[in-house]
């Protein structure tokens, strides 16, 4: 942990490992999702937009090289000697024929000699043994990260958000990935409908029992044209204030295994689609407020985790 943050940031981890600036480049592999095409459900998770959380990924259907070069050209103006992580972000990026996956993954890691890793966002119910074997194959060439959308370990909430799988499926996926030494990054959301602060802390406690390498913590935000927007309009739940989000996130970090890397502590809401909360647009404000809160209260990642180990 550095002086600026009282938790293990991804930026620090990458700088320590590669000794230079590393950027994730979000790519769109033109995937869909079993929670949208009728395999699991037709509605998707209630908070998910039509882009499948890929608003900041490349253009759907565009060649990967074109998507990558567009981002690289912007970054290289300020950081000309950067390294990159090829990141398949939109929808479920292991949901497709094996030959398509193999072609896209290999193309991605070979887009540029400065690509140092492959990151794949997916669902735990879309990780067959054949897909994991493919990821294992690539992991022997360049590091592979698999990002899993868990959101919560509260099964009642999972039904409310239409997650479409039980916790056991997630636990099994993590176990099978780790047997192949593939890094797992877990997405969770704070402020889901009807969840208490204790529910959010319980999710962290459950994750502490697993062999995961990273976590992304998001605040819940409401996007236009989603089932969540309907619920919000009907006053079926309340969103967290910035102060509430900072307080609960600090407590989560205090509980969390200190070896787990924090990939994100605030979501990126697309401005043109955001309904609420508007503070979700101020990513750096959220980060700064969390840093200030943790410093003022002498909170560090893992403080409570260490106490449990004594």
What keyword list fits this structure?
310 residues, alpha/beta, pyruvate-formate lyase- activating enzyme, 7-stranded parallel sheet, two-stranded antiparallel ribbon, globular
Structure description:
The protein is 38% helix and 16% strand. The chain has 310 residues and is of the alpha/beta class. It has a single domain (10-309), classed as pyruvate-formate lyase- activating enzyme. A seven-stranded parallel beta sheet has the order 1-2-3-4-5-6-8, sandwiched between helices. It has a two-stranded antiparallel sheet with strand order 7-9. Helix 7 (197-207) runs parallel beside helix 9 (242-255) and helix 9 (242-255) packs across helix 10. The longest helix has 15 residues, at 64-78. The model has no long low-confidence stretch (mean pLDDT 91).
User: Could you name the CATH class?
Assistant: Alpha Beta
- Note the total helix count: 11
Q: Tell me the helix content.
A: 25-40%
Which architecture name does CATH use? Alpha-Beta Horseshoe
CATH topology: pyruvate-formate lyase- activating enzyme
Note poorly predicted spans.
none
Compute the number of structural domains: 1
Order of strands, widest sheet: 1-2-3-4-5-6-8
Secondary-structure element sequence? HEHEHEHEHHEHEEHHEEHH
Rg, alpha carbons: 19 Å
In short:
With 310 residues, this protein is an alpha/beta fold. It has helices spanning 10-18, 64-78, 98-109, 129-139, 155-160, 167-179, 197-207, 227-233, 242-255, 283-296, 303-309; strands spanning 22-27, 83-88, 115-122, 144-151, 183-190, 214-219, 222-223, 261-264, 274-276.
């Amino acid at each position: 942990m550095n002086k600026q943050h009282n938790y293990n940031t991804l930026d620090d981890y990458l700088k320590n490992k590669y000794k230079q600036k590393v950027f994730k480049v979000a790519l769109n592999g033109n995937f869909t999702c079993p929670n949208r095409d009728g395999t699991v459900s037709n509605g998707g998770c209630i908070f998910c937009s039509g882009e499948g959380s890929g608003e900041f990924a490349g253009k759907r259907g565009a060649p990967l090289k074109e998507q990558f070069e567009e981002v690289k050209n912007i970054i290289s103006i300020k950081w000309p000697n950067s390294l990159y992580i090829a990141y398949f972000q939109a929808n479920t990026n292991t949901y497709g024929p094996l030959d398509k996956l193999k072609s896209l993954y290999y193309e991605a890691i070979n887009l540029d000699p400065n690509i140092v890793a492959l990151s794949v966002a997916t669902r735990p119910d879309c990780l067959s043994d054949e897909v994991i074997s493919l990821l294992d194959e690539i992991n022997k060439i360049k590091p592979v990260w698999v990002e899993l959308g868990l959101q919560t370990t509260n099964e009642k909430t999972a039904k409310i958000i239409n997650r479409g799988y039980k916790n056991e499926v997630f636990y099994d996926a993590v176990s099978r990935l780790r047997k192949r030494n593939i890094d797992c990054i877990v997405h969770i959301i704070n402020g889901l409908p009807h969840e208490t602060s204790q529910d959010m802390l319980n999710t962290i406690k459950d994750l502490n029992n697993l062999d995961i390498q990273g976590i992304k913590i998001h605040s819940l935000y409401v996007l236009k044209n989603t089932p969540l927007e309907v619920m919000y309009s009907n006053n079926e739940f309340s969103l967290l204030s910035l102060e509430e989000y900072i307080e609960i996130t600090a407590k989560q970090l205090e509980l969390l295994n200190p070896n787990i890397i924090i990939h994100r502590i605030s979501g990126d809401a697309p401005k043109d689609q955001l309904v609420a909360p508007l503070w979700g647009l101020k990513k750096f404000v959220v980060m700064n407020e969390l840093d200030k809160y943790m410093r003022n209260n002498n909170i560090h990642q893992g403080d409570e985790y260490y106490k449990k180990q004594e």
